[in-house]
Amino acid sequence: MYSYDTVSEALNALRKRGFDHDFNINQEVIECKHLNIRLEPDAFEIVEHYRFEGETDPADESVVYAIQSTDASVKGTLVSAYGVYAETASETLIRKLTHK
Predict the structure, then answer these.
(1) Model-wide pTM > 0.70
(2) What is each CA distance from 5 to 50, 63, 75, in whole angstroms?
(3) Average pLDDT, the chain
């Protein structure tokens, strides 16, 4: 597994390794608006994840996920806040993301 000091460093390195699409959480799925696709929790795998804690600002606390569809046809990243700033997601999606 790789090690990164910042979110932007992780995102840049992951893009260079083929994780070039941006995913966002939308209730019970993750979606890539650029590709117009929505993946349910059983349709994607978390390949890697990196947790970053803000030194002074709680808003800087986040997790970067390297994600691929189960058929490996789509690879991208998801940046998600955690703690009090976490996005609204379904229980199933939260379980998937926190299992790693």
Answers:
(1) yes
(2) 10, 12, 22
(3) 86
